[in-house]
Amino acid sequence: MAIGTGRQRHEHWTCRMAFFSSSAAAARLVVLSRAESTNDELAERARTDAPSEWPEFSVLITNEQTMGRGRLGRSWTAPPGTMLAISVLLRPMRAGIRDERAKGWIPLLAGLAMRNALTLLGADAELKWPNDVLIDGRKVCGILAEVQPDGVVVLGSGVNLTLTDDDLPVPTATSMLMAGAESDADVVLAAYLTELREVYGRFAAAGGDAEASGLRAAVAEACSTLGRTVRVQLPGAQDLVGVAAGLDGSGRLVVEASGRRTAVSAGDVTHLRY
Ligand code: BTN
After folding, report:
1. What is the pLDDT of residue 2?
2. Ligand 1 neighbours (beta carbon < 6 A)
3. Which of 20, 80, 223, 238 gets the most CB atoms within 10 Å of its CB?
4. Which of the two residues, 5 and 263, has the higher pLDDT score?
5. 183 CA from centroid of ligand 1 (Å)
6. Quick one: pLDDT band at residue 235, thresholds 50, 70, 90?
7. Atom of ligand 1 nearest to the CA of 37
């Protein structure tokens, strides 16, 4: 049942009933029957409302996103009802995250949390740098972390739940259903939020130091990109082909090619071979 007017017109209070487990893991949970982009919607609400209305770990979700945005200016699409679009609000400064290099780690931590959650739910999930989650080499989740001018982070993730072969936006995608794993939206969301709270809590407790918190090691362990030969398409530059040798202190991918190491902070990575 839709209630309210204006920006509230798509809010379904009855939907909260279907997200009982997730509600317990979120500081606030807003479920929309439809949104253009959950990242934009949450950023706009957090910008215009009092900060107290949107505490850290406020979550806004929908399963029908009409103008979803992906990394590097791409769009993110799925048929209505088949993909869960999740945006989580973080307040790193208030959480005591002051390390300069922390910004690069937050999206990686989201990828780690999602990979851990999907693994617990029966998928053989892996993390592809920077933060795609794959099952059998195919993408099940993408992450888009956006820092707002006031330092708030809107952490968006799109998880393919019940897409079938016919629905796939690209042949390199997959879904939890196709992988034979748990695909219930509430169960997946609750598992993700629980994992995210755990890794982000550890990160914050270490002031945003990925090394001291043990999260650099945890991300490296989960990241199937490391040790592989990769092609990196760098925005506005030539492709870089080399071996993904590790992660630097800011979470950048270190690629070794012709005896030279290059740290990459953004770009499209293709796994070529081991
Ligand atoms: C990517 O792999 O390119 C990132 C995709 C991120 C999609 C999610 S869905 C929820 C949130 N809202 C958006 O508009 N985008 C992110």
Report:
1. 35
2. 37-39, 65, 68-71, 74, 76, 85-87, 132, 142-144, 156-158
3. 223
4. 263
5. 18
6. confident
7. 14
